Amino acid sequence: APGAPNVNTSLAAIMARKGQRDRAMKLLLQALTLDSGRARPQDRSAAFVVRARIHQAENRKEDAIADLRSAARAFPGNLEALNMLSDEQFKAGRYDAALEVFRTLENTGARSAETAIKIGQCYAKMGRNKRAIDHLIDATNKFPESAALQLELGDVHLSKQDYELARSAYQAALKVDPIYDPAHLKLGELLVKEAKVDEALSYFESSLKKNPKGALMHYGLANLKKQIASTSGEVTILGEAESAYRSALKLNPGLVN
User: Which residues touch 37 (CB under 8 Å, ≥6 apart)?
Assistant: First the structure.
């Protein structure tokens, strides 16, 4: 309904893109000053993110960071806010600063599977893989419903070339969500790393039979067939790779560059 916080936030985002920042800020203020009974945590969090983007466009970095922290506190599962908080520090290699942000958020009650993943990523980028693994394992006990946590744990194991531990984590993700494409993709790619090309090919094909709309499975199959074609020189396989890329692109236009 007009005036609802989610509607105001959407309109504000459009106005901000058009350069009408003053009007956008007024709409966001309306959304953010509603009492908690009229605005869901997700809506308040989204409004803070839009305001943070406006502050970023005006080069008001500290105000943007403050809004992003408020967004994470309002709804700790807001991955967009968490990604924005970490992006600048990660780009600058300031992983310790990013870690401090997420630890502070958790200490103030903004704890979620998403914040745990970010903390794990900070530790991993700092070369503290054991600390990353310990943190992620602890988080999987707190948030057993998160397939993404298991995926992140698998990625840390994979970076250490602990293939069996990585496989176990990816399989654990699929126990949480049997059609979680990122985990299926990782399992297929892991077989390729182990030089088990035929097994990888069978895995991708069987996964697609179970879930034909799995864009990442089409993408993984395309990558593998492209690799096979580059080694064998077989034009037919290269054509199959192109077809698989097209299927992936049709299902998820943002997937294939």
Answer: none
